[in-house]
Design brief:
By secondary structure, the chain is mainly alpha-helical. The chain is 53% helix and 11% strand. The chain has 2 domains: 2-49, no CATH class; 58-144. The two termini are 21 Å apart. Bound molecules: zinc ion.
């Protein structure tokens, strides 16, 4: 059975015997060196293929920043705003000359810190799940390629 593929450079349709799978050949049209793809049907099913150390290290070498979801950054921003806002209202209440200003100050700083902790906690959860999902997807991509 022949392998049919397209030259990535000149888009010439090429047909080669399946024994040539994975080999490097010269394109008959543009003379560039191209590698013959391995037929997808020739690969074993995904679940039977081993996860190799190479595929894992390749997956981990991707920069972390590209994995992060927008919601994670948004929640971290909300966390910082809670913290800054809480501190602002804390000091505002402290310097206020009212009998209940001390109690209000602690309520404000409590809300600020509490909000920040919640936001960062959910951002952390999103990061972990994003990383796991991204990592699994990356492994599947690596094994399919
Ligand atoms: Zn070509």
């Amino acid at each position: 059975m022949d392998i049919k593929f397209t030259c990535p450079r000149c888009l010439q349709n090429i047909s080669i015997d399946e024994k040539g799978a994975g080999a490097t050949v010269e394109c008959p049209s543009c003379k560039s060196q191209i590698s013959v793809p391995v037929e997808p049907s020739a690969k074993p099913p995904l679940s039977y293929r081993a996860v190799t150390p190479a595929s894992i290290s390749e997956a981990l070498s991707e920069p972390v920043i590209e994995r992060r979801s927008g919601w994670s950054w948004f929640l971290k921003l909300v966390g910082v705003i809670c913290l800054v806002g809480g501190m602002f209202w804390f000091f505002a209440a402290v310097y206020e000359e009212r009998s209940d200003s001390a109690r209000n100050a602690f309520i404000y700083i409590g809300i600020g810190i509490g909000g920040a902790i919640q936001s960062f906690f959910f951002a952390f959860l999103i990061d972990v799940f994003t990383d796991i999902r991204w990592f699994l997807k990356k492994l599947v991509d690596t094994r399919n390629s």
